[in-house]
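User: Good morning. I'm curious how benzoic acid would be positioned relative to this chain. Could you predict the structure with it bound?
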Amino acid sequence: MRNITEHNITEAVIARFAGCDDSRLKEIMSSLVTHLHAFVRETRITEAEWAKGIEFLTATGHITDDKRQEFILLSDTLGVSMLTVAMNHTKPPAATEATVFGPFHVEGAPVFENGADISGGAPGEPLFVNCTVRGLDGEPIAGAIVDTWQADDDGFYDVQVAGLEQHRARGTLRTDEAGRFWFQSVLPVAYPIPTDGPVGAMLVATGRHPWRPAHVHFLIRAPGYETLTTHVFRAGDPYLDSDTVFGVRASLLAEFVPHAAEAGRGRHHTLDFGFVLAPQKG
Ligand code: BEZ
Ligand code: FE
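Assistant: Good morning! Here's the predicted structure, ligand included:
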């Protein structure tokens, strides 16, 4: 085809994938081209606007490194991460819902015994977390591996604190025979996602705020069960209805109960939550 026009170029590009022998890749690339071209046509995008888009993606790549993942932020703030999670984790109603993974999980976080203080000196009021992990029939899941991570009272994850070498407010635990795990950390607060990069500029330009409601992350793995990536959100947080990454599910809200100073403990909060894992598919 030599006379490429505005009207036949989509067909021409898709025809070039004819020799692709990975049928799923061919389907994805053809659909991507179809929708991308439709977007360009619908918005009648100008060359200057397209150049700006390329500049934006270039900046997104340049700021990304092993500690900063701007593409995940972009996917999260455009709702693509949550759409992918929602589509790929349809679960029985009794199972705990999944939500976005986010960019702050770290492989190989320190391993703790149940009852340990995992805060590592992170600022914040003490929080005592008591959880269970069960299957759909209520059976306790012993030996499940639980990764947890969260922001501190300043609204930062340890990996965001310049010069901090040690892990804080994150760790790996294992459920006991009754499917329980428990630990001490700090009370999480609402925090803005990083705004010093292109995604932050996009939020400002489109009149959006960058805030996420207070939450604690959990990644729970157990043989025979679907891995659960989720958060527990603090009930009453002002950002529950406008989470900038669209991650809130009503079933994931819990009271972080305040307690006045009492024997041996200063002012603190407690969180109790029961996770239910769905059986592994297939
Ligand atoms: C988080 O919860 O850690 C997170 C999720 C999406 C974007 C930024 C942060
Ligand atoms: Fe988070």
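The mean pLDDT is 95. Residues 102, 104, 151, 212, 215, 217 surround fe (iii) ion (ligand 2) (CB under 6 Å).
Let me know if you'd like a different ligand tried.
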